[in-house]
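Complex 402.
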Amino acid sequence: MGSTTDLLALAHKHLYGNYKPAPFVLRSGKGAELFDVDGKRYVDLCAGVAVCAVGHAHPKLAARLAEQAGKLLHVSNYFFNEENILLAQELTYASCMDRGLFCNSGAEANEAIFKLARRAAWMKRGTTEGVIVAFHNAFHGRTMGALSMTGTPKYREGFGAVEGVVHLPFGDLAAVQALPTDKHIIAVVVEPVQGEGGVYPAPEGFLAGLRAFCNERGALLLVDEVQTGIARTGSFLAFHEAGIRPDAVALAKGLGGGFPIGAMLTTEEYAGVLTPGTHGSTYGGNALASVAARTVLEIVREEKLAARAKDLGAKLSAMLNDLVQAFPDHCELERGRGLLRGLVLREGFVARDVLPKLQEKGILLTAAGDRVIRFSPPLVVTESELAEGVEAIRAVLPTLTK
Ligand SMILES: Cc1ncc(COP(=O)(O)O)c(C=O)c1O
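Predicted structure with pyridoxal-5'-phosphate bound:
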């Protein structure tokens, strides 16, 4: 317990300075509302970057976590735990995949799909030589494998990269198809909507085209649904709308509703690739994380959050389009799917400079890419909370300078 001033002084003294958090300290939340240590209310329209899908302090999630904490937290993967087996059943059913391997974050889920693809190629051809195709602007996480697939150079600067990854323009199927046939393509990795890169939805037919390309070239199609998954875009997973089935999917963020958990899902065909000893994580799929994810899946079903994301996403889109019409000198367009949407500012404006002004007005949003104000609210957000966010932007836009 402490005042904002005291806590910020402690933070600046003791926390490693790789993040640059806003200058207030959050203490509690309810639904899409957050409260800082001084009692100030914020409308949370970012949900911890697309994480708190069922909102803050959801009574069912809070109760189940507390109950499980009194029963069993962790046993390691030397032993089964009941909750993890049931989660694997429920998650593979909901996603139309066959197998689940659990970890703790999005980067780890992407490391798993990266290793799956390399190992599958090695088992088939006796070598890991070949190319993993990723896309410009993509974001797959901060560990070295995930970072190497990430397609924005600023994230990779000063770290080097794992070799064998090529980046092509996102949405450009012809560029993928033009890859020389004497190159072995191990896999293609794609986000259905590029989140961090600036909320770019894949163009119509892109995922299906990649599926066909992978089938032709004997490559795996890897879909990163870390940001788009768990009902955010209006269907349980965004690839469900594309009429395809990937070979492997990476999940995290919304899956635990705020409790850290990630997952790699695969089809049965790749079930035998990562054999015992080839990959793992001490905490992966522990009982508490599994209860969190099972409860999130239950709430998503009961509260019909995919349909809600679609419906509220359309309403938010209309509100943002109104802003674009009203401020043509400041706003270029809005885009997105469901409740993952971006307001694109005109060239010269910097989205992250807008955020502190919105925070003063009690609205929490994030930037994606250089010019995009990103909405990724809890899926339980109300229409009026979304409107509060849009009205705050309306008030702030005239004060912006290039
Ligand atoms: C599409 C995508 N993949 C992977 C990640 C990395 O997830 P994490 O930060 O949990 O490692 C992110 C995080 O923003 C993401 O948006």
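The first strand starts at residue 26 and ends at 30.
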